[in-house]
Write a structure and sequence with these properties.
Layout lengths: L1 H15 L46 E5 L5 H16 L3 E6 L4 E6 L8 H13 L4 H4 L8 E6 L7 H12 L4 H10 L2 E5 L2 E6 L1 H15 L4 H15 L27 H21 L25 H8 L6 H29 L4 H8 L2 H13 L1 H62 L1
Antiparallel strand pairs: 1-3, 2-3, 4-6, 5-6
Length: 440
Amino acid sequence: MSMESSSNIIDSRSEKNGGKKNHNKYRRDKPWDTADINHWEVSEWDENDGDALPGGRLLEESSFATLFPKYREKYLREVWPLVTRSLDRYKIACELNLVEGSMTVRTTRKTSDPYIILKARDLIKLLARSIPAPQALKILNDDYHCDILKIGGLVRNKERFVKRRQRLIGPDGATLKALELLTQCYILVQGNTVSVMGTHKGIKKVRTVVMECMKNIHPVYNIKRLMIMKELEKDPKLKDESWERFLPTFKKKNVQRRKPRQLIEEKQKMAAAASSGATSFGEGSKGAGTKKKKSYTPFPPAQLPSKIDKQLDSGEYFLSERDRKSKKLVEKQIASKEKSEEKRKAREREFVHPSLLGEDSGDGASGKSVEGVGEKGGDASKVNVSATEDVERLANKFAKPGKKRKSEESKTEDEDASDFVAGLEKKKSKKEKKKKKEKR
């Protein structure tokens, strides 16, 4: 019964208000709150103007400490008297510990402003992040705020991270300077952090630019957008309108990466071969340059033999390390001799007459010339034939000793290789005999 009665009461209330809740039911007039008051204004703490804590002082001591890098120690030691003087005005105590490498700030019994300790905490953070002391001391004013953006873990690849960080700074710091002018903030890029000092709005803009830069969006695009927004702020007519139609929208383009040079060269060769094949054989041979499609097989390709499999097949696996090295040395020597022989032959070919080179491939060219001359006149044919005979005789005369030399050299090479292998076998047999004697 009680549940039904409560539900009826709720329904009756909702019917009276037309199905809507009355949010202004418990609102009361605030005579001190007028339209002239700016709620966003940050007023300074002034003891002479009547600003005071209940009880006259802070009940508990608050303190903050931060570490600083070793390379900042010398500078902080020089600047610390200036820092202590500026904090004494606000009745804040500070300490520089060079043993631990830390800075500490804390409230005292005389501290009246409850928020100044947080400003002092920001001051020691900025000093640790390599901001000059005169600039860092501005944070104690109520107009200035700060933020330290951590960018170290946003990009995995270190090289890519360094490039993007440099992109944020720009050539000779031009990009950073433009960003400072547009946002009215002080920006310092140091290591894995970006320190920003300025107003709340300016810090918010800088944060978006820095984070997008680390996501591979160039800061120039955002700077252009900020410049347009700065111009639009001057026009009072556009105060209550949307600015989206004026602002540029930059779409991401998927740019193809450059392929390695080898792939490009292979493609060019294939294209050249295909074009030459098409010109020589006509339309029927157009598909000669292109690869044929392989027939589909559900089975995977056969596994290629590993290095150990190859050694087992050749018997090299069962040899000792010394024998393997000696075998490789012999193979290298034989291969080098073969190469030197080929080069020598190539050098000798330069001194051979082209007519003799033609005879090796076939006597077609020389025969044609003789026959052609023979048709024109008998005397000329006789002269040509006698000339070719003389050339052949001379070539045979000089070619014979060359052939002998080649055969002798090849014999000596074979003998050297056989002697080397025989020497290795003798060494092996001596070692085996020694081992047997030791066993006995």
